[in-house]
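Below sits the subject:

***
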Amino acid sequence: MTAFRDELVNIIAEESGLDAGTLMGSAGLMSAGVLDSFALVTVITFVEEHIGGEVPPADLSFENFDSIAGICAYVERALTL
């Protein structure tokens, strides 16, 4: 999961224009405006490529996608189903 997390952080940094080092513990990716709707689509596409399937609309929640930890936990759950 570390490789996934590192790549996720790099994608978020690129999309947001922020330094990757400041994002490692970042919460509030959407609620704090770090990710806009276009950047969120990029993150969701990356997640879908990693899990090998679509993210169902019901899973697009702040709980799952508002923090790096939340996204990683979502991917872990999706890979165990």
